[in-house]
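Q: How do we represent a protein-ligand complex in a form that can be generated token by token?
A: Start from the inputs.
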Amino acid sequence: MAAQLDGVLEKDLQEKIKNSKVLVVGAGGIGCEVLKNLVLTGFLDIEIIDLDTIDVSNLNRQFLFHKEHVGKSKAEVARDSALSFNPNAKIKAYHDSITSNNYGVNFFQQFTLVLNALDNRAARNHVNRMCLTSGIPLIESGTAGYSGQAELIKRGLTQCYECKPVPGQKSYPGCTIRNTPSEPIHCIVWAKHLFNQLFGESNDDEDVSPDTADPEAGAEVGEAALAKDANEKGNVDRISTRVWAKQCDFDAEKIYNKLFFEDIKYLLSMSNLWKNRVPPNPIKWDSIVEEGEEVTDAVARDQKVLTHSQSAKVFAESIKALKESFTKLPEGDYLVWDKDDKHAMDFVAACANIRAQIFGIPRKSRFEIKSMAGNIIPAIATTNAMTAGLVVMQAFGVLREQYEKCFHIYVRLVTNPRKQFIIRDKVLIPPNPKCYVCSAKPEVVLKVDTKNVTVRELRDDILIKALNMVSPDVTLDGTSTIVISSEEGETDCNDDKKLVDLNIVDGCVLKADDFLQNYELSITIVHKDPGREEAAFEIIADPSSLKPKEAEPSKETEKDEAQPSTSSGQNGSSTNGKKARYDEDVSGEVLVVPDDDDMPSTSKAGTSGSGAAGSSSSGSGVEKRKHVEDDEEPASKKVKVSAQQDDSDDDLIIMDD
Ligand SMILES: Nc1ncnc2c1ncn2[C@@H]1O[C@H](COP(=O)(O)OP(=O)(O)OP(=O)(O)O)[C@@H](O)[C@H]1O
Ligand SMILES: [Zn+2]
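Then emit the structure tokens for the protein with adenosine-5'-triphosphate bound:
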């Protein structure tokens, strides 16, 4: 092994490498590369864990796996393949989830160092907490397309994975989606909403009918049209789209005419909308002009941009298939949209293209729509390889105990003005004192409708999904009430009770304790009445932000208050520290500002992903986020960084333009 040759690494480090014991969490794109690097560098005691088995789609970049390994445990095959590089290494593999009860604090404490190579926020949060509790340094990493990063997380020294707020998903204004789409993505989002309205978990926020409350619309004209046409069309009646579709037995022609003719005509009646826009062109089913031959070949169907008539055929076929699956479900159950489900994907592609055609928006191939609808960012082997290299370099820094030099490192597609595409921060980002995970006294405020939210929702949606606990015990502070017990069955009788039934009301404090994570959180309840378009709950990580302001709020504060909170989980939202400032950053673009002597340097990149997320300044009391690179050019050379995040695989994107 080259790294063990004299002169490649210093003697002292070579010794430390030989004597250390490391845990690699995840044996996917980065994990395979990291494991190979560790073995080739001379690490002899390695454990690796992955819950998954090998899929054909992994083979193009997870080179420790071959065709014959498909279906086998990733961790076990990765171990066997890596051992071929150095049979003297000791590698233990676990085919399991790192969040399982088997891996508690004692497990983590055996390691010198933990290296994350994960693809989702929940697992990253968990390992973050375990490493904080155990006091073990963690190297967090991630890639998205051509961007990657590696970051040291060390208790008390650096910010933790959860010091930064959870970025919100990119969302589009309801009226753009419902009334005035102008880009293919608007039609794709609308089509996904339509899927849910017809077959999925319907949600008021995902209405697909014309929005009469659009402030830009000539509402009176629209209302008049509404009153006149109501009962015939179903679209503007007070019944839901699903009930109406069921009543007409999911007849493709009727649904088509409602969505793409009647609703569009109705939109046209909102004349103000079209004063400065090209108006849409409603097309009736029986006036669709046949264009192009029927496409039967699956590859062509995926790659070609279908004509309007071809899309209409796919629309009809997919509705028929989805109706069959839907009607087989027990009453109250629904379909879940999945990009890999043929009919669900066909439906969204067809609807998006038909709507695009009507609004004069370029149509897309099914393949393109799939990647946009599924938020797919291609995984690139070279980015993974580079990032894995950086992970091991960070590990060297830890072994040398040169923590102060373990700056956050990024791989970028576009070089900086000095032609560097591997760039690092100039300083370590300190912990956020308001962080609800790593601060001395973790606390949050939970704004929740105590009259309607149940104990089950508190546990599943808030504590587990939004606050990332694994198996919480919850008591009502100052009383002997056990609200939730992690012991099976012990508090099942509470599950369907509303919070108020257990006296969990405005001003109460709950103590939530996750034994596995060794994590205790104090939760102050603030009752909020339900609002139509509001999230069912909101988590505010900085309780002091709720206290009455002493002075008049500054303009900036007012603006901040008006921002929507970052979302975490489906219905809820969570914020950590400077919430509005953060939202502003993620919804738009972050302007990189030059270094400034009187502010600690911090960086903000696409945060999501890699978990090795972009750093933020939330802990330092600094209002402005700055991206500070080594050797950064003077102020005149400003670069923009924007952030984006997908649903669950939260890999980072940093884009320069
Ligand atoms: N809780 C967990 N415990 C252990 N391993 C996990 C856990 N969550 C995710 N992983 C693993 O982390 C790895 C991440 O690797 P990667 O991002 O390359 O994903 P992938 O599933 O291999 O690829 P893709 O998502 O692109 O199909 C995966 O192998 C995944 O199984
Ligand atoms: Zn923290």
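Residues 308-328 form the longest helix (21 residues). Residues 2-168+378-424 form a domain with the Rossmann fold fold (CATH 3.40.50.720).
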